[in-house]
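name: query_chain
kind: protein
chains: 1
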Amino acid sequence: MSALLRQIPANIPQDMRKIRIENSHLTELPRGSFENISALEYLWLNFNNITVMHIKSLEYLPALKELRLQGNKLSSVPWTAFQDTPALKILDLKHNRLDVLPEHALRYLPNLTYLDLSSNQLTVISRDVFYSWPVYQRSQRAEGQIEAISNAVLALHDNPWICDCRLRGFVQFIKSVGPPIILMNSYLTCSSPKFRAGKFFHEVELNSCMKPLTSALDTNLTVPVGLNVTLTCFVQASPSPAVWWTYALKLLRAFNVSTEHISEETVRSELLIPAARPADAGNYTCTAANFLGNTSVAITLRVGAPWASTTPPGWAPIAPAEPGAHVEVRIAKQTVYGITLEWFAAAAAAAEPGETWYTLLVGRYDAAQKDAIYIGPGVNTYSVTDLLPATKYEVCVAVRNQAPRKGQCVVFVTGSDVSQLEQREKLIHIIVIVCAMVLAVPAGMYACTAEARPGCLARCPGACPRRRRGGQAQAAGSKESTLDSLPAGSEDGLCHPEGGRGGRRPPACEEPGKTRPPHRNSADLY
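structure:
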């Protein structure tokens, strides 16, 4: 007792009939642990740390009558090992971690009179485990006969039984069992599902198992833009199925999905899509599965076209803009991943800020159709991320149901890969030509106002010789500008006509008859 033994001693006398090693540190029963003690009848190894039992650990023990392994850490037992112990009458395995009882488990225990499997982790057992037990088979053959049969005590309580269709046969066995098989505790209780937790076996009626059957009240939905949408599917199955939603072959996040039982075999699953937008349109699939198989149902969602989803970069209004509904937009933050916009509505639009919705249109500058994002009341910032390098983007903000006006858009250009320094310098130079002003931002991203036009890009390839600015640079005055604040790598000459290398620098790519816009600094963007 309480010895620091880590293995079965090798010098046990051969005529030993009873061995008791408890509260020690045994961790396994290896092969041939007792091969020299063939007279052994009682083996008690309670309250050790045994996790592994070799299939031949009981070899050469034909006389063994009692094996007690209570309070160990066995998660499985090699039941065929009991072929070597035909005389075994008592098997105590309570307070272990057994979670499976295979159908052949009791086949090699023909003379058992006491089996204790209580306080383990058993959840589901087939009744065939006991139908193949020789003790039960003898009792069935002897029914109605005078022949006396020894009783067999069976302990199965304090296990987390899952009372669904898989346990149906076992529950029927427990209800019908009688002498010579005696249950130590006949009040076996259900642990799950929730609606059966705590109920006794004799109180429940379990149905046969059923493969999931999925359905939906409406498989075609059309909703207006900005409306919260709930897609619903119903599943009939036994046992309870796992249910999930997919869209475009992607698993949808669980926090938008709720699943609940509305009856014993029916589950309702709901998917919430907040503020539906055109990008949310498509086929949503509800899938349910249990051990018998899986089925699914598809629901098609159509979202009404947004008011400006096809408006070209010119932003021709399709609804008259209210004079006081102007939205002021600024770049609040720039990171290596994108920019964060901040806006506020002036005058009438700001009169009821708690009820004002906004629409953001985000996309490449030259895209005919931009993504529409609908922002609810009380929110006045949005981060634009996942951008492509060396690409020109435009983001516009407007009060809901109005077209964006001048000053409500931000145009910005993402830089090239920072590892390609030469390309990055060229990109900066192009931006200087294109933009009336440049806002320097980290990691190769640059922003300019909506008034910028990309005309130079088409007309001046190769017409921008690299040269240092001369004294003429003082013509810009003492006013601080973005051009003056650029790093040395971008101090190249601006575009000018062919042959115009010397003397006074002409305006950058001006078209005939068009006046040059006044010089503006980076603060104008704010």
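note: Residues 421-434 form the longest helix (14 residues).
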